[in-house]
Amino acid sequence: MSAYSSNELKLEGRFCDLPDNEKEPASSTDECSNKLAYCVTDVPPWYLCIILGIQHCLTAFGGIIAIPLILSQGLCLQHDGLTQSHLISTIFLVSGVCTLLQVVFGIRLPILQGGTFTLLAPSMALLSMPEWTCPAWTQNASLVNTSSTHFIELQGSIIVGSVFQVLVGFSGLIGLFMRFIGPLTIAPTISLIGLSLFDSAGSSAGNHWGISAMTTALIILFSQYLRHIPVPFPAYNKDKRLHTSPVYVFQILPVLLGITLSWTICYILTVYNVLPAEPDKYGYLARTDLKGDVMSQAPWLVFPYPGQWGRPTVSLAGVIGILAGVISSMIESVGDYHACARLSGAPPPPKHAINRGIGIEGIGCLLAGAWGTGNGTTSYSENVGALGITKVGSRMVIVASGVLMVVMGIFGKVGAIFTTIPSPVIGGMFMVMFGVISAAGVSNLQYADMNSSRNIFIFGFSMFTGLVIPNWILKNSKAISTGVVELDQVLQVLLTTSMFVGGFFGFILDNTVPGSKHERGILAWNKAHEDDSSNTLESGKVYSLPFGINSHLCSSSWFRYIPFCPPTMPNSSDGCGAVANSVEPKHLEMPSHLGASEQTLK
Predict the structure, then answer these.
(1) Furthest-apart CA pair in the chain: how many Å?
(2) What is the pLDDT, as a whole number, of residue 290?
(3) DSSP code of 235?
(4) 369: helix, coil or strand?
(5) Where are the transmembrane segments (predicted)?
(6) Residues 496, 317: Cα–Cα separation, whole Å
(7) pLDDT tens, 51-85?
């Protein structure tokens, strides 16, 4: 445990255990498995921070590199490995910076930031507009670069859309949004993100179905069948000296292991010329030497900077499309905050912390747009799940992850390595990843009454229209002709974005078709995300602003009215007041191992 004072340790003891919803007393085995090794405010040893930080980076690896690889198709960069590598380096750097901002100043939970698939759908819709079709010469070009009109317009749209998220977060309007958005809006919106990308997965996997099927099978094997099988790893400590310790490698790194094995097999097949060397033959794109010169051309050190691809421009169609993705991202992040708090042994996040978290995510999207990742940033659900596996909920581990991602973004060779992954291997990863995203959206229906014909109709209709309308518009791109070019572009982007179409119909129907709050799932949804801890001392310990900012601001009378700052009252440990809405803190159940002196804190 960290070297906190005894008083601090007593306070932390009240929220460091994972919450247990079970009414019946748990067995000693269950209690041990439910303990956190380090809770959110603890500081593990530096070497453990680095090791677990690397693990979180590797857990987010699949999602972070998938986004620039998908975007490269719309940006005409399929064969431009050097620019792809620079794009990957940029997204690693920005993800690291945004992670540090979120952990230190934002929600202050151990939650990692990275590229978001909710912005990928409108981005691809924008890049698929008829006037932005990739020229024929780019199909075999090895140096295209991204200094093109459509990429800098995408950058500008992300910047403007992120300003909206900043305003919604820091003004506290996210609570108003959540009042009208329930499971029947969220389910089709998130599900259609994965379903709308089936063409990307199919195109990549179709370059060699054998290799892609092998990649998919390996990821499924590791993540589902072998996840509970520990692998002995050598370890050392003063008590046991050199010994072996069980590590659930398959559960923690299934995507990385699956890709690495398939990548290695492709390399062996390339070396022995099992895969065809002629570009026009099936299976050629599974070779690992297609971008062999990228590693030699990529610099050792790169320093991505704002505006590196050119001065961003803005279009109305792009901004409105990105706004649809931003709203979805905000809703998803609120759910991630609550899940992360539970798994890291922290109280549920109060409103001021959620407002600050959403606002910082908006700033992260602003930075991503300025640097030119072609995407924004959001909280990573995969890393939230990793907290439950490792039983280490310390936010210092995520700080280490942020620093590591910044370092990876600066080393250009790291991004270059990822561009050499064969297309069928990427396709196999996409098939698993996009399937999980689709299923994650459907899982939100657990809050609604799916025995209700009303809910079945709303979800089914929203999903089907979210697939049919974009598909028809893409095949009949000239059908939209209002006579106003800007309006045509707006409609083109919105109606080809599946998540917008499905989410729009889900939102309208759910808020207009008669139904009780219980039937709609609003009551269960609110209960699962209820905020009942904003007036406790524990909440102040976890969610208050860092570096004594609370102490400096509490003397100002206007401080309490700022939506993203914690409310205060006198006599708190930091000299500024306990985070509270009432005079007395809530009484929480004390862990059985604490003595009588600790009980007096109640």
Answers:
(1) 78
(2) 84
(3) E
(4) helix
(5) 45-71, 91-111, 158-177, 208-226, 247-272, 309-327, 397-419, 425-444, 456-474, 489-509
(6) 12
(7) 888 878 877 877 788 888 888 888 878 777 788 88
pLDDT tens for 95-130 read 999 999 999 999 999 999 998 888 888 888 888 877
Q: Collapse the DSSP code of 432 into the 3-class scheme (helix H, G, I; strand E, B; otherwise coil) and give the result.
A: helix
Q: Do residues 196 and 438 lie in contact, with contact meaning Cβ atoms separated by under 8 Å?
A: no
Q: How far apart are CA 346 and CA 544, in angstroms?
A: 13
Are 412 and 190 in contact by the 8 Å Cβ rule? The answer is: no
Distance CA 337, CA 348 (A): 8
SS3 (DSSP) at 113: strand
For tokens 């070019």, the residue is 485
Task: Report the alpha-carbon distance of residue 493 to residue 490 in Å, rounded.
Answer: 5
Grouping H, G, I as helix, E, B as strand and the rest as coil, residue 337 is: helix
DSSP secondary structure letters along 278-290: STTSTTGGG-S-T
Q: What is the DSSP letter of 523?
A: H
Helices 381-390, 46-74: crossing angle, 10 deg rounding = 150
Neighbouring CB atoms inside 10 A of 380's CB total 25
- Pairing between β-strand 113-114 and β-strand 231-237 as defined by DSSP bridges: unpaired
Q: Are residues 59 and 383 in contact, defined by beta-carbon separation less than 8 angstroms?
A: yes
> What is the chain's percent helix, strand, coil content, to nearest 5?
60, 5, 35
Instruction: Give me the amino acid identity at 366.
Output: L
What angle separates helix 351-371 from helix 149-171, to the nearest 10 degrees? 160
**Predicted pLDDT of residue 148:** 61
The CA distance from 113 to 374, in Å, is: 15
What sign does the dihedral 190-195-200-201 (CA atoms) show? positive
Q: Of how many residues is the chain composed?
A: 602
For residue 581, what pLDDT is reported?
A: 37
Q: How far lies 54's CA from each of 328, 366, 390, 391, 470, in Å?
A: 29, 26, 13, 16, 40
Q: Which residues pair with 232 in a beta bridge?
A: 246
